[in-house]
Design goal:
The chain is an alpha+beta fold. It contains three helices and five strands. The chain has helices spanning 2-18, 73-82, 101-120; strands at 21-23, 33-35, 42-50, 56-63, 85-93. The chain has a domain at 15-95: CD59, CATH 2.10.60. Residues 1-19 form the signal peptide. This is UPAR/Ly6 domain-containing protein. Keywords: Signal.
Length: 121
């Protein structure tokens, strides 16, 4: 049983080292995750806050690929400022790191007991 668990963990680790997968939130409908190109190892999240009478916040997520205008922080910043807004770009390393804190906490609540069980038995 432990052997199978070790094999599963190693398989996930090997898969994670080959490419990075990020959450996606942009104009592409029904796409929620994206495997980044081989040379991209970081994810991004860009928030644009526009303080016009409607006061809205627009969030874009994806692979941190400077060559892709949909997720290039400099391009998104220019678009945000053109709407009269202020933008902030966040980048991170690792699979699904551009998720919400709630999702991250949910993953930790599953991972910590599983790892503890494996280490104690």
């Amino acid at each position: 049983m432990k052997f199978l668990l070790v094999i599963a963990i190693l398989a996930l680790w090997i898969q994670a080292t080959e490419s990075t997968t990020c959450f996606v939130q942009n104009s592409i409908p029904s796409v929620f995750t994206q495997v980044c190109p081989g040379n991209i190892y970081t994810c991004m999240k860009f928030d644009c806050r526009v303080n016009n009478p409607k006061k809205f916040k627009q969030t874009t997520k994806g692979c941190n690929d400077p060559g892709n205008p949909q997720v290039a922080c400099t391009q998104l910043m220019t678009q945000c400022q053109a709407q009269g807004g202020t933008g902030q770009c966040y980048t991170c390393n690792g699979d699904y790191c551009n998720s919400t804190p709630t999702t991250f906490a949910a993953l930790l609540s599953i991972a910590i007991p599983a790892i503890s069980f494996f280490l104690l038995h």
